[in-house]
Amino acid sequence: MATTTAAQQREKARIEYDAFIKNCPTNQLLDRISDKWVSLVVCALTPGSMRYSDLGRKIAGVSPKMLTQTLRSLERDGLLTRTVTPSVPVRVDYELTPLGTSLSCLLSAVKDWAELHIEQVNKARDDYDAEPS
Amino acid sequence: MATTTAAQQREKARIEYDAFIKNCPTNQLLDRISDKWVSLVVCALTPGSMRYSDLGRKIAGVSPKMLTQTLRSLERDGLLTRTVTPSVPVRVDYELTPLGTSLSCLLSAVKDWAELHIEQVNKARDDYDAEPS
DNA sequence: CGGGATCCCGATAGATACTG
DNA sequence: CAGTATCTATCGGGATCCCG
After folding, report:
1. Check whether domain B14-130 has CATH 2.60.120.10, yes or no
2. What is the mean pLDDT of chain B?
3. For the whole model, what pTM was predicted?
């Protein structure tokens, strides 16, 4: 048991690198917006506030669990606010904060790039797939 | 068997929505850059071309499998080129294409946003976690 | 040196059912 | 209406071995 195996050393390196990545703001942000539902929620809320069930319907395909989970994490990061109105049927509204709106703008930039270059990517993909080798 | 269950209908909706998402350039791009290693590889290659093993060392923590897989998919999308030099020990260089460089610029924008707003996010997170409830 | 093929495991998405 | 709890199936990703 004495000697450290190569596997253990690599494991150590991996953990350190993971820590490095987690402390990197860029990767944190990438992790955040890469989440399957985050971009959809942000996009859905960009026009204005919306209720929980309306979001569920607009995003169609999301399970209550994932919707709640996504909304919670976005709320935690200060990207949206959660407002509970204790009426007879409870009413909960979600709305982007200025920070959330700012993120929405960034997503727009991503969207623009995507739409501008998607054809090149698709072409490259076809060429690659068509290669004889 | 005649009647379609609610579960089946939801399943259908999910599949359609999935298809919708997959056809959306923005989500394709998000899927791409959200990949754990893609941003790191692009970032590593931004200064210039690099060899396979150099990449592996610079990114430290990536397994050969993931590195190869990442490089292949990026090559397929026309974001980088792969050059094989059949010398005695084989030599393979990777280099960003103009399209890849363009993506690198987008990642820079993401990076800028991240560094500009990370403090707000962290503060919001602390506040949220500190809440009594 | 630069990979491909295979096996395996932990994380997590999502379906379902229940609650205030 | 707006969630929560639980269970399961899937799958990304790492380890390992092997090849050209």
Report:
1. no
2. 88
3. 0.87
